[in-house]
Write a structure and sequence with these properties.
This protein is of the alpha/beta class. It contains 20 helices and 12 strands. The strands form 3 sheets. It has a 6-stranded mixed sheet with strand order 6-9-10-3-11-12.
C-alpha cells in the first residue's frame, strides 16, 4: 500500500500548471452535491406543509426555490466537468512529455531494458488509464463521499432509528468490495503485459510488411496475432468476471435497503410514531443518493485497480536513471580526432557482480587524428560494438576509450557526440523534406552547404533527378527511397556536422563499388583532417585505408597497413584472394579456417 501511495504522489507532481483546475473541479462538485441533497428535503416540505395542508402558495414558493437550486447545481456540475477534463488531459499530456523526455536521455543500455512495444504501451494505453482514473478521482471521488456523508446526515436528521438500515447495508457492501478488488488487481497487472505483446506483434508486422508479403507469410502472421489477441482476451475476461460481480452486489444492497426502509417506514407512518409521508419520500430519495454513491465508490476502486498497475509501469520509465550522463566538470571541447583504446573490455548484459559475457576483450590500439582506418571481421566479431564505445553509446566494463587524448567519460555528451558522427548500415530518415533530414547534421546549414555535403556523398546525382529536388518529401523511415540512396543521404547528413571523427558502419553496403570508391575518394580529398573509421565486408572498401583493423571474436587479430596485412595476416589474405578471385570472400569462413589452423599448429 505504501508503494502505491508513493507512486501516486510521484505522478501527482506532474499535474503542474493544471493544479488550479484540479482544485476547482472538486469545489464545484461539492457545491453541486450540497444543492442536490437539499432538494429531497424540500420535497418533504412541499408534501407535508403544502399539499397535505392545502397551502398552494407554499408549494409554489418552495417549487421555485427548488428550480433555482437545480439550475445552480447544474451550473456547478458543468463547471466541475470542464475543470476535471482540462486537469486530467493536461496531466496526461505532462506525463507523456515527461516520459518521452526521459526516454531521450536513456543510453542504449537503458533502452535495452524496455521493449519498444512496452514503451509505446506505457506512453499510450497506460497513460490513458491513469488519465481516466485521475478524472474520476476529481469528480467521483469528491461527489461520492460528499454525497454519502451529506445524505446520511440528512437521513439521520429525519429519523435516526430508520437510518440504521443504511449503516448495515454499507457494512455489507464494504466487505464485498474488500474481497473483490484485490482479486482483480492481479489480473489487471497481467493484462498490461499482454498489451505489450499485442503492440509488439503489430509493430513488427507493420514494419516488416514487405517481407511478410514477399515470403507469403500472411497466414502465419495472422495466427501469431490471433494468439496474442486471445491471450489478452482471456486475461481481460478473467479480470472482468470478478469486476462484473460489483454491480449485482451494489444493486442487491440498493433493493434490500429500499424494501427495508419502505417496510419499516410504512409501519411507523401507520402507527403514528413520528414519521410523515413526506419524510419517508425524502428517506427513499436519500437511499438512492447513499447507495449510488457507494456504487460510484466501488467503481472508483475498479478503475483504480486498473490504473495502479498502469501507474507503476509509467513510474518505471519516469524513475529510470540514464546510466550514461555528462560528468559535473565535463570537458566541452574535443582537441582532435585521435582515438585510443587501452585494455578495453565490454559486455552488454551486466550482472550484479560486474560485467556479463564479454563481447570485447583486451582491446588496445592507437589511431592518429586524420587517419583513415578500415575495420573488417566476421559476423559477431564486435566491430559495431567497438565503434559504439567511441561516442559513448555504451560504457566500457574496464579500461578506457580516449578521443582527443581525453577519456570519453569526461566529456559533455552533446560535445562528444557532435564531434563523433556515426553512419549506420540501417540508418533512419525521418518524415519531412530532404533538406529537413540533412539539417539533422547541422540545423543552421545553408542550402549550399547541404548541396556540398550531398556532392561528397554522391547523393546529388539522384536528388537532382527528383522533380522537387532538395524539397522532395521523404516518407517516415525513408520508405520512398532505395537502400543505397538512404545510405548516401545519411552520410551527407553526418558530414554537415563537420565532425572530428566520422564512423561509417558498413554504410556503403547498399551502393555499387564504383559509387563506394567515389565517396571514399571525396572524403579523403575534402576532409583530410577528419578521422575516418570504415567498417566494411568488402576488401575494396578498405584497401586504400591508412591502416586496417582485423577483428576476430571480440579481439584485435591484426592492425596494420593493407600491404603488410596482405603479407602477414591469414584472415586478410584469404578474404583478399577470395574477393579478387572466384571465392565468396566470406570473413566468417576465413576466420574459422584460420582458427582451425592455429589450433592444429598448437597441437603439433
Amino acid at each position: 500500500m505504501n508503494d502505491k501511495l508513493a507512486t501516486g504522489k510521484r505522478l501527482a507532481g506532474h499535474i503542474g500548471q493544471y493544479r488550479r483546475d484540479a482544485l476547482l473541479s472538486p469545489l464545484c462538485t461539492i457545491g453541486c452535491v450540497i444543492l442536490e441533497i437539499l432538494i429531497p428535503y424540500m420535497t418533504a416540505s412541499i408534501i407535508d406543509d403544502g399539499i397535505a395542508a392545502g397551502n398552494m402558495a407554499h408549494v409554489v414558493k418552495i417549487g421555485l426555490l427548488m428550480a433555482a437550486m437545480a439550475l445552480l447545481a447544474m451550473g456547478f456540475g458543468v463547471k466541475a466537468n470542464q475543470f476535471s477534463a482540462r486537469a486530467s488531459t493536461g496531466f496526461a499530456c505532462n506525463l507523456r512529455q515527461a516520459m518521452f523526455e526521459n526516454i531521450q536521455r536513456f543510453s542504449f543500455s537503458n533502452i535495452d531494458k524496455f521493449s519498444t512495444a512496452g514503451l509505446v504501451t506505457r506512453l499510450t494505453t497506460d497513460v490513458t488509464n491513469v488519465q481516466n482514473a485521475f478524472q474520476m478521482i476529481l469528480m467521483v471521488c469528491t461527489r461520492a463521499p460528499v454525497t454519502l456523508i451529506v445524505a446520511l446526515m440528512m437521513a439521520l436528521s429525519i429519523n435516526a432509528r430508520l437510518s440504521m438500515v443504511f449503516l448495515c447495508v454499507m457494512l455489507v457492501l464494504g466487505v464485498a468490495l474488500f474481497i473483490l478488488i484485490p482479486m482483480s488487481m492481479r489480473y489487471f497487472k497481467q493484462m498490461f503485459r499482454k498489451y505489450d505483446v499485442v503492440n509488439g506483434t503489430i509493430k513488427e508486422n507493420v514494419g516488416a510488411i514487405r517481407v511478410v508479403k514477399a515470403f507469403v507469410r500472411e497466414d502465419y502472421e495472422n495466427s501469431k496475432f490471433k494468439r496474442a489477441a486471445e491471450d489478452l482476451y482471456k486475461n481481460s475476461v478473467s479480470a472482468e468476471k470478478i469486476i462484473s460481480l460489483n454491480m449485482p452486489v451494489v444493486m442487491g444492497c440498493v433493493y434490500a435497503c429500499i424494501l427495508l426502509i419502505s417496510w419499516f417506514g410504512a409501519k411507523m407512518i401507520v402507527g403514528g410514531t413520528g414519521l410523515t409521508t413526506g419524510q419517508l419520500t425524502s428517506l427513499l430519495s436519500y437511499i438512492m443518493n447513499i447507495l449510488m454513491s457507494l456504487m460510484m465508490i466501488s467503481m472508483i476502486f475498479v478503475m483504480l485497480s486498473q490504473s495502479v498497475a498502469a501507474a507503476q509501469r509509467i513510474e518505471e520509465v519516469l524513475c529510470e536513471q540514464a546510466d550514461i550522463v555528462s560528468p559535473a566538470d565535463a570537458v566541452k571541447q574535443v582537441a582532435d580526432g585521435s582515438i585510443d583504446f587501452e585494455n578495453v573490455a565490454f559486455s552488454y548484459r551486466k550482472s550484479a557482480q560486474g560485467g556479463g559475457t564479454p563481447v570485447l576483450s583486451d582491446v588496445s590500439l592507437h589511431i592518429r587524428s586524420g587517419e583513415t582506418i578500415g575495420i573488417i571481421g566476421g559476423t559477431g566479431s564486435s566491430k559495431s560494438s567497438l565503434v559504439n564505445l567511441i561516442s559513448r553509446l555504451y560504457d566500457v566494463d574496464s579500461g578506457c576509450v580516449k578521443v582527443g587524448g581525453v577519456d570519453v567519460r569526461r566529456y559533455d555528451l552533446e560535445t562528444l557526440r557532435s564531434e563523433v558522427s556515426v553512419v549506420l548500415q540501417k540508418n533512419v530518415l525521418f518524415s519531412g523534406t530532404i533538406l529537413d533530414n540533412l539539417r539533422w547534421g547541422d540545423e543552421s546549414a545553408t542550402e549550399e552547404e547541404c548541396r556540398e555535403a550531398c556532392r561528397l556523398a554522391c547523393a546529388d546525382e539522384f536528388i537532382e533527378s527528383f522533380p522537387d529536388g532538395y524539397n522532395t518529401r521523404i516518407e517516415r523511415g525513408g520508405a520512398n527511397v532505395s537502400g543505397g540512396q538512404k545510405q548516401r543521404l545519411c552520410i551527407a547528413r553526418a558530414l554537415l556536422g563537420k565532425p572530428k571523427v566520422l564512423i561509417l558502419d558498413d554504410s556503403t553496403s547498399a551502393v555499387d563499388t564504383a559509387t563506394d570508391a567515389k565517396i571514399r575518394a571525396a572524403l579523403r580529398t575534402h576532409i583530410p583532417g577528419t578521422t575516418k573509421l570504415i567498417i566494411a565486408q568488402r576488401i575494396a572498401s578498405v584497401e586504400d585505408a591508412d591502416r586496417v583493423l582485423v577483428m576476430d571474436e571480440g579481439r584485435v587479430a591484426a592492425f596494420d597497413t593493407p600491404e603488410n596485412l596482405l603479407a602477414t595476416c591469414p584472415i586478410y589474405q584469404e578474404v583478399y584472394n577470395s574477393q579478387a578471385g572466384a571465392g565468396s570472400g566470406d570473413f566468417d569462413e576465413a576466420a574459422k579456417r584460420d582458427s582451425r589452423q592455429a589450433k592444429g599448429g598448437a597441437r603439433a
